[in-house]
Amino acid sequence: IDTVPVITIDGPAGAGKGTIACLLAQKLGWHMLDSGAIYRVAALAALQRKLDLQDETTLAAMIPILKIEFRDGEAWLDGEVVTGEIRNENCASATSKIAALPAVRAALLELQRSFQQSPGLVADGRDMGTVVFPGANHKFYLTASAEIRAERRLKQLSEQGLSAKLCDLIQDINARDERDASRPVAPLKPADDAVLIDTSSLDRGEVFAVVLRHIA
Ligand code: CDP
Ligand code: CDP
Question: What is the residue with the minimal CA distance to atom 13 of ligand 2?
Protein backbone atom coordinates (compact mmCIF):
# COMPACT_ATOMS: atom_id res chain seq x y z
CA ILE A 1 0.00 0.00 0.00
CA ASP A 2 2.97 2.26 0.65
CA THR A 3 3.54 3.90 -2.67
CA VAL A 4 6.26 6.34 -1.65
CA PRO A 5 9.56 4.41 -1.40
CA VAL A 6 11.49 4.30 1.88
CA ILE A 7 15.06 3.28 2.70
CA THR A 8 15.82 2.74 6.39
CA ILE A 9 19.20 3.06 8.11
CA ASP A 10 19.32 1.85 11.70
CA GLY A 11 22.09 1.13 14.17
CA PRO A 12 23.81 2.29 17.36
CA ALA A 13 25.24 5.76 18.10
CA GLY A 14 28.12 6.83 15.90
CA ALA A 15 27.78 3.97 13.40
CA GLY A 16 27.58 6.52 10.57
CA LYS A 17 23.81 6.41 9.96
CA GLY A 18 23.29 10.16 9.70
CA THR A 19 26.23 10.60 7.34
CA ILE A 20 25.03 7.85 4.99
CA ALA A 21 21.36 8.90 5.20
CA CYS A 22 22.35 12.41 4.20
CA LEU A 23 24.53 11.28 1.28
CA LEU A 24 21.81 8.93 0.06
CA ALA A 25 18.97 11.46 0.36
CA GLN A 26 21.09 13.98 -1.57
CA LYS A 27 21.97 11.50 -4.30
CA LEU A 28 18.35 10.34 -4.76
CA GLY A 29 16.78 13.78 -4.20
CA TRP A 30 14.62 12.27 -1.45
CA HIS A 31 13.44 13.56 1.92
CA MET A 32 15.30 12.63 5.06
CA LEU A 33 14.06 11.73 8.53
CA ASP A 34 16.51 12.02 11.44
CA SER A 35 14.27 10.25 13.94
CA GLY A 36 16.88 10.59 16.69
CA ALA A 37 16.55 14.37 16.40
CA ILE A 38 12.80 14.07 17.05
CA TYR A 39 13.45 12.03 20.20
CA ARG A 40 16.18 14.49 21.22
CA VAL A 41 13.87 17.53 20.85
CA ALA A 42 11.20 15.77 22.95
CA ALA A 43 13.84 14.99 25.61
CA LEU A 44 15.01 18.61 25.62
CA ALA A 45 11.42 19.75 26.18
CA ALA A 46 11.18 17.35 29.14
CA LEU A 47 14.49 18.65 30.56
CA GLN A 48 13.35 22.27 30.15
CA ARG A 49 10.13 21.47 32.02
CA LYS A 50 12.13 19.56 34.66
CA LEU A 51 9.85 16.54 34.20
CA ASP A 52 10.57 13.19 35.79
CA LEU A 53 12.18 11.19 32.95
CA GLN A 54 10.39 8.05 34.13
CA ASP A 55 6.92 9.57 34.31
CA GLU A 56 5.56 7.97 31.16
CA THR A 57 2.06 9.44 31.35
CA THR A 58 3.19 13.05 31.81
CA LEU A 59 5.90 12.75 29.15
CA ALA A 60 3.52 11.23 26.58
CA ALA A 61 0.89 13.90 27.34
CA MET A 62 3.47 16.65 26.71
CA ILE A 63 4.36 15.47 23.19
CA PRO A 64 1.19 16.48 21.29
CA ILE A 65 1.48 20.06 22.57
CA LEU A 66 5.09 20.47 21.35
CA LYS A 67 5.82 22.15 18.03
CA ILE A 68 8.72 20.11 16.63
CA GLU A 69 9.99 21.27 13.22
CA PHE A 70 12.95 20.81 10.90
CA ARG A 71 13.58 23.62 8.46
CA ASP A 72 16.46 25.76 7.16
CA GLY A 73 18.83 23.01 8.31
CA GLU A 74 17.85 23.57 11.97
CA ALA A 75 15.82 21.73 14.57
CA TRP A 76 13.09 23.87 16.19
CA LEU A 77 11.16 23.48 19.43
CA ASP A 78 8.20 25.82 19.87
CA GLY A 79 9.74 28.34 17.49
CA GLU A 80 13.26 28.30 18.99
CA VAL A 81 16.36 26.85 17.28
CA VAL A 82 17.63 23.94 19.39
CA THR A 83 20.04 22.31 16.91
CA GLY A 84 23.11 22.72 19.12
CA GLU A 85 21.41 22.04 22.43
CA ILE A 86 19.99 18.65 21.43
CA ARG A 87 23.43 17.33 20.47
CA ASN A 88 25.15 17.20 23.86
CA GLU A 89 25.58 13.91 25.74
CA ASN A 90 23.35 15.08 28.59
CA CYS A 91 20.47 15.45 26.17
CA ALA A 92 21.43 12.17 24.43
CA SER A 93 21.29 10.33 27.72
CA ALA A 94 17.90 11.86 28.65
CA THR A 95 16.74 10.93 25.14
CA SER A 96 17.49 7.24 25.53
CA LYS A 97 15.63 7.29 28.87
CA ILE A 98 12.39 8.72 27.50
CA ALA A 99 12.78 6.66 24.31
CA ALA A 100 12.42 3.49 26.40
CA LEU A 101 8.82 4.42 27.32
CA PRO A 102 6.18 2.83 25.04
CA ALA A 103 3.68 5.72 25.36
CA VAL A 104 6.39 8.22 24.35
CA ARG A 105 7.27 6.14 21.28
CA ALA A 106 3.59 5.79 20.34
CA ALA A 107 3.09 9.56 20.64
CA LEU A 108 5.96 10.18 18.18
CA LEU A 109 4.97 7.58 15.59
CA GLU A 110 2.62 9.69 13.48
CA LEU A 111 5.07 12.61 13.25
CA GLN A 112 7.79 10.23 12.00
CA ARG A 113 5.52 8.58 9.42
CA SER A 114 4.45 12.00 8.09
CA PHE A 115 7.95 12.31 6.56
CA GLN A 116 7.09 9.62 4.00
CA GLN A 117 6.51 11.98 1.11
CA SER A 118 7.08 11.85 -2.63
CA PRO A 119 9.51 11.18 -4.26
CA GLY A 120 10.93 9.09 -1.37
CA LEU A 121 12.34 8.99 2.13
CA VAL A 122 15.62 7.98 3.73
CA ALA A 123 14.95 7.36 7.43
CA ASP A 124 17.68 7.13 10.08
CA GLY A 125 17.24 5.79 13.62
CA ARG A 126 16.95 2.66 15.75
CA ASP A 127 13.58 1.17 14.74
CA MET A 128 12.99 2.59 11.26
CA GLY A 129 13.08 -0.86 9.60
CA THR A 130 11.49 -2.79 12.45
CA VAL A 131 8.61 -0.58 13.64
CA VAL A 132 8.12 2.74 11.86
CA PHE A 133 8.56 1.60 8.23
CA PRO A 134 8.40 -2.22 8.31
CA GLY A 135 7.48 -2.26 4.61
CA ALA A 136 10.56 -0.25 3.55
CA ASN A 137 12.03 -1.04 0.14
CA HIS A 138 15.59 -1.37 1.47
CA LYS A 139 16.82 -1.71 5.05
CA PHE A 140 20.34 -1.23 6.32
CA TYR A 141 21.80 -1.78 9.78
CA LEU A 142 25.16 -0.13 10.42
CA THR A 143 27.40 -1.09 13.32
CA ALA A 144 30.97 -0.51 14.50
CA SER A 145 32.83 -1.28 17.72
CA ALA A 146 32.07 1.02 20.68
CA GLU A 147 35.72 2.21 20.71
CA ILE A 148 35.61 3.26 17.05
CA ARG A 149 32.25 4.96 17.50
CA ALA A 150 33.52 6.85 20.55
CA GLU A 151 36.63 7.93 18.61
CA ARG A 152 34.41 9.27 15.83
CA ARG A 153 32.33 11.19 18.37
CA LEU A 154 35.52 12.61 19.92
CA LYS A 155 36.69 13.78 16.51
CA GLN A 156 33.27 15.35 15.82
CA LEU A 157 33.45 17.19 19.16
CA SER A 158 36.99 18.44 18.60
CA GLU A 159 35.95 19.76 15.18
CA GLN A 160 33.33 21.81 17.05
CA GLY A 161 36.02 23.08 19.43
CA LEU A 162 34.72 20.87 22.25
CA SER A 163 36.69 18.36 24.29
CA ALA A 164 35.85 15.12 26.07
CA LYS A 165 37.63 12.09 27.45
CA LEU A 166 37.56 9.04 25.21
CA CYS A 167 36.91 6.73 28.18
CA ASP A 168 33.89 8.83 29.20
CA LEU A 169 32.54 8.74 25.66
CA ILE A 170 32.95 4.94 25.49
CA GLN A 171 31.08 4.66 28.77
CA ASP A 172 28.27 6.98 27.61
CA ILE A 173 27.92 5.13 24.31
CA ASN A 174 27.86 1.71 25.98
CA ALA A 175 25.27 2.85 28.54
CA ARG A 176 23.05 4.29 25.81
CA ASP A 177 23.39 1.21 23.54
CA GLU A 178 22.58 -1.04 26.50
CA ARG A 179 19.46 1.01 27.30
CA ASP A 180 18.39 1.14 23.64
CA ALA A 181 18.96 -2.60 23.08
CA SER A 182 17.38 -3.88 26.29
CA ARG A 183 14.12 -1.92 26.24
CA PRO A 184 11.03 -4.07 25.69
CA VAL A 185 9.56 -1.79 23.03
CA ALA A 186 11.31 -1.16 19.69
CA PRO A 187 14.71 -2.30 20.94
CA LEU A 188 17.82 -1.55 18.92
CA LYS A 189 18.20 -4.58 16.66
CA PRO A 190 18.40 -5.25 12.94
CA ALA A 191 15.20 -6.02 11.03
CA ASP A 192 15.17 -9.62 9.77
CA ASP A 193 15.46 -8.34 6.22
CA ALA A 194 18.14 -5.68 6.88
CA VAL A 195 21.57 -5.64 5.22
CA LEU A 196 24.20 -5.55 8.00
CA ILE A 197 27.29 -3.41 7.46
CA ASP A 198 30.14 -3.25 9.97
CA THR A 199 31.67 0.18 9.37
CA SER A 200 34.56 -0.22 11.85
CA SER A 201 37.23 -0.29 9.17
CA LEU A 202 35.35 1.54 6.40
CA ASP A 203 35.31 5.26 5.69
CA ARG A 204 32.07 6.96 4.72
CA GLY A 205 32.79 6.64 0.97
CA GLU A 206 33.29 2.89 1.31
CA VAL A 207 30.09 2.45 3.33
CA PHE A 208 28.17 4.56 0.80
CA ALA A 209 29.49 2.38 -2.04
CA VAL A 210 28.22 -0.78 -0.29
CA VAL A 211 24.79 0.82 0.23
CA LEU A 212 24.57 1.97 -3.40
CA ARG A 213 25.50 -1.50 -4.63
CA HIS A 214 22.57 -2.98 -2.68
CA ILE A 215 19.97 -0.53 -3.94
CA ALA A 216 21.18 -0.56 -7.57
O1 CDP B 1 24.28 9.01 12.87
P2 CDP B 1 25.29 8.23 13.62
O3 CDP B 1 25.32 8.55 15.09
O4 CDP B 1 25.16 6.76 13.39
O5 CDP B 1 26.72 8.60 13.05
P6 CDP B 1 27.22 9.89 12.21
O7 CDP B 1 26.89 11.09 12.95
O8 CDP B 1 26.76 9.75 10.80
O9 CDP B 1 28.79 9.62 12.18
C10 CDP B 1 29.60 9.88 13.31
C11 CDP B 1 30.96 10.36 12.82
O12 CDP B 1 31.68 9.27 12.27
C13 CDP B 1 30.90 11.45 11.75
O14 CDP B 1 31.83 12.46 12.06
C15 CDP B 1 31.31 10.73 10.48
O16 CDP B 1 32.00 11.54 9.57
C17 CDP B 1 32.22 9.64 11.00
N18 CDP B 1 32.20 8.45 10.17
C19 CDP B 1 33.35 7.81 9.90
O20 CDP B 1 34.39 8.25 10.35
N21 CDP B 1 33.38 6.67 9.13
C22 CDP B 1 32.25 6.16 8.66
N23 CDP B 1 32.25 5.04 7.94
C24 CDP B 1 31.06 6.81 8.96
C25 CDP B 1 31.07 7.97 9.73
O1 CDP C 1 23.37 10.38 16.75
P2 CDP C 1 23.23 9.19 17.63
O3 CDP C 1 23.22 7.91 16.85
O4 CDP C 1 24.14 9.19 18.79
O5 CDP C 1 21.80 9.28 18.34
P6 CDP C 1 20.41 9.65 17.71
O7 CDP C 1 20.16 8.88 16.47
O8 CDP C 1 20.29 11.10 17.65
O9 CDP C 1 19.43 9.06 18.82
C10 CDP C 1 19.46 9.51 20.16
C11 CDP C 1 18.69 8.53 21.01
O12 CDP C 1 17.32 8.54 20.61
C13 CDP C 1 19.10 7.07 20.89
O14 CDP C 1 20.13 6.69 21.79
C15 CDP C 1 17.79 6.32 21.19
O16 CDP C 1 17.61 6.15 22.57
C17 CDP C 1 16.72 7.28 20.70
N18 CDP C 1 16.16 6.88 19.41
C19 CDP C 1 15.19 5.90 19.40
O20 CDP C 1 14.88 5.34 20.43
N21 CDP C 1 14.60 5.55 18.23
C22 CDP C 1 14.94 6.13 17.10
N23 CDP C 1 14.34 5.77 15.97
C24 CDP C 1 15.94 7.11 17.08
C25 CDP C 1 16.55 7.46 18.26
Answer: 96
